[in-house]
Amino acid sequence: MDPKTIRGYGDELYDALRRQRMVAPITDREPEMSLEDAYAISRQLLERRTADGETVIGKKIGVTSRAVQSMLDVHQPDFGFLTDAMVFNSGDHLPVSDLLIQPRAEGEIAFLLKRDLMGPGITNADVAAATEGVMPCFEIVDSRITDWKIKIQDTVADNASCGLFVLGDALVSPARVDLATCGMVLEKNGEIVATGAGAAALNSPLNAVAWLANTLGAFGIGLSAGEVILSGSLAALIPVQAGDCMSMRIGGIGGASVRFV
């Protein structure tokens, strides 16, 4: 895909983000689009956002759990970038009506890094040693692609379908919790809607972050000290709308809550 076309699709997704509108799947228009093309489009989208004054504060791993892969019919992980315009704290009100199009919530574990990680060759032990702490997190994913009709290239181009995220009320050393077996309970409007465990994210969130560091390393991109890394959903995606309330708890780590407005 030539640079002009890549810029055009990145600008189209940026306009869709700002105007809260959907666009036709790019893969319908560009059936030969590669993953490399898709990541180039995502970087154009990010450049437009940072030109607006947003700052990159972390990265996210998407489509790590079988439940999400089956729901979206996307069967490999991807990654996107987090900015300071996306982050909220537990208990906040999220203005999804003003910012998002077709939001879905997922519960996951976020990592706060104290050291840089640069692939290739990053191991789970490297990830644990580089982590200041982990915390519960809601990621509110969103798609600028019509009705979530995405292939892997579509979601990659669309910054891994990232919307907003909510960080929980605790920061716990990864040495104090078994990140593969810790259980999650997710509630929506007072009812349990999903359960999961750390192993849903590529068998361990540590695996997921190591995958991200090694995958990004191939693009010459590292994970930096101070960044937040979202390690992937532990259960299926839950559609949300204004008026909904959600809460979650992850064993050994803590909880988070959010109200959508």
Could you list some keywords that capture this structure?
8 helices; alpha+beta; single chain; 261 residues; 29% helix; 8-stranded mixed sheet; 13 strands; Fumarylacetoacetate hydrolase, domain 2
How would you portray this structure in words?
The structure is a single chain. The protein has 261 residues and is α+β, with helices and mostly antiparallel strands. It has a single domain, classed as Alpha-Beta Complex (Fumarylacetoacetate hydrolase, domain 2). 29% of the residues lie in helices and 30% in strands. The protein is built from 8 helices and 13 strands. Helix 1 packs across helix 3 and helix 6 packs across helix 8. The longest helix has 17 residues. The radius of gyration is 17 Å and the shape is globular.
Question: What does this entry show, briefly?
Answer:
With 261 residues, this protein is an alpha+beta fold. 29% of the residues lie in helices and 30% in strands. Strand 12 and strand 13 form a beta hairpin.
Layout of strands and helices, then pairs:
Layout (H helix, E strand, L loop, with lengths): L2 H17 L6 H4 L5 H17 L4 E7 L3 H7 L5 E6 L3 E3 L3 E2 L1 H4 L4 E10 L10 H7 E11 L10 H6 L6 E4 L15 E6 L2 E7 L7 H13 L10 E6 L4 E2 L5 E6 L3 E7 L1
Parallel strand pairs: 1-10, 3-7, 4-13
Antiparallel strand pairs: 1-2, 5-6, 5-10, 5-11, 6-7, 8-9, 8-12, 12-13
Helix pairs in contact: 1-3, 6-8
